[in-house]
Amino acid sequence: MIKVWLPLGLLYAGFLFWYGGCGAPLSADELQRIDARMEAAIPAPEARARLSEFARTDDGREFFMVNLNRYRAEPRYADGREESALRLCALATLR
Fold first, then answer.
1. Are 47 and 56 in contact (CB under 8 A)?
2. pTM above 0.70, yes or no
3. What are 45-55's pLDDT values in tens digits?
4. Rounded distance, CA 29 to CA 60, Å?
């Protein structure tokens, strides 16, 4: 019986360590790399400043994010087209 439970327990402990991490805050080198990537990827300075502040105040603990998205029954595209991407994808699949 121990031949089964011991490996399973070690596997579970390994998973918990991998998933939970060590809980260390971001280092100065990591913060510099993050800032460089944000500079290249995010054109809005206000958004970059908020994300940079978020990274600098990291305490190493986990956090949770909730996405509260609302979707329309029919999409409204900025260019005014009426064609649905879902319909176009379905038509391409059926060909």
1. no
2. no
3. 999 999 999 99
4. 15
